[in-house]
Amino acid sequence: MSACESYYITSFSIRVHIITWNVGSATPPDDITSLLGLNVGDGNTDMYIIGLQEVNSMINKRLKDALFTDQWSEVCMERLSPFGYVLVTSQRMQGVLLLVFAKYFHLPFLRGVQTETTRTGLGGYWGNKGGVSARMSVYGHTICFLNCHLPAHMENSDQRMEDFESILQQQQFEGQAATGVLDHDVVFWFGDLNFRIDDLEMQVVKSAIDNNKFSILWEKDQLNMAKDSETVLEGFQEGPLKFPPTYKFDVGTNTYDTSGKKRKPAWTDRILWRLRATAPAGAGKRGSISGLTSGAKVTQHNYRSHMEFTVSDHKPVSSIFTLQVRKTRVDIPLVTIIVDDEWNSVADATAIFKLAPNYSRSSWDWIGLFKVGFKHYKDYVGYVWAKQEESDFLRQEHQVIWMHEELPKGSGDFILGYYSNNMSSIVGVTEPFQVIVTHSHIILQNIQGAFQMIHQWE
Q: What does the pLDDT read at residue 140?
């Protein structure tokens, strides 16, 4: 059995679920099932992108998080891993956190993963505001996910745009065709962007919310107004805001701010996207928006808030997209692993792997044995080095063998994953297979081996 055989993709779709939430230094709620859409049960989501702001960043908490995983990453991994989602990468800048998950079988085709951070708080010295991003090639198409926390307060709309431009200018990726954020085929921009509703009085805003007349508020939304005048926003798209403003609530309630400050409700929490456009010959700048878009199409399926979560003064916002690759292309894993359907004894614990001609191997590569439902690439049960002897250079296939100490103590469903040291990612996986080599089997085999040795001595 082998995973990820070579195949042609004529119209390949990736379903991406993006979440943004200013968590207001709160600890995670007990259940985030509905936020992740796991209660729907369609099972079609390929990637989860989770952008958080104001994750607890007190000094003692950050020291703990440096040694262990922060609570928010942990709860997301715990909830998603049973459904086959693996943490691809994460990036944290003080309170701004970005998590990227994907179904395990997509891992070999998520390549060139890089992350960046840009601080804009206190003139660039403090990371309470700014942007964190993760970029990668997804089945040959470059995508960048950018999570931002921009300056607060009604009067700082211009500063928000300046900080966004600064983030775009400063974030540069190395060794890739797409060096800047906007150079990618698709960009998803989300976060607590902090744009407010201009001009309208509090009672007008609340009346529009109470009567579901959100269109009255759209016209005065600072981000919507900026789209007509700010060049940096050219090409960015957003679905209609058909949900109530997500800020600011009394914590623990669905009641807008009743404190002395009485902040006006606003859609501070947003999710936008942008396709890299190629201008047709002779087209002006405006014509570039409707030009060819490198073979990718983005469809938004929903855009909503989640009123049931009350641990923060913000409500989380989510959106589900389908990214459709329209070009025909060939995708071959860099490493193909062949393994039997079952391991019934220690003698069965072997695998064959084949390397693609363009794969750059390292002597530090390894193959991990992962229990189905593993959280990230370090969450292995055991591993063996994918050693390369001098005599191996001309061989097409290479074999690895697991010793009994590298095998799990119980039976279950497992996969093998080939980890590339040069690429810092898993570049080949198998389909799930069964390991039925229990600890008692290993002990029995050791006893049998010992008796055979005694018999030989006699």
A: 86
Q: Tell me, what's the pLDDT at 410?
A: 86
Rounded distance, CA 147 to CA 132, Å? 5
**Could you say which of 286, 303, 329 is where a domain stops?**
329
Do residue 194 and residue 337 come from a single domain? Answer: no
CATH of the domain at 382: 2.60.40.2840
Q: Is residue 288 part of a domain?
A: yes
Residues 286, 176 within the same domain: yes
Q: What is the pLDDT of residue 277?
A: 77
Q: What is the mean pLDDT of each successive set of 10 residues along the chain, which is 458 residues long?
A: 45 91 96 93 88 84 67 96 97 96 96 95 76 94 96 96 96 84 96 97 96 96 95 96 98 96 96 81 37 70 97 98 70 92 94 93 95 96 84 76 89 97 96 81 47 50
Q: Are residues 160 and 290 in the same domain?
A: yes
Q: Which of 279, 308, 329 is the last residue of a domain?
A: 329
Domain span at 230: 8-329
CATH code, domain with 320: 3.60.10.10
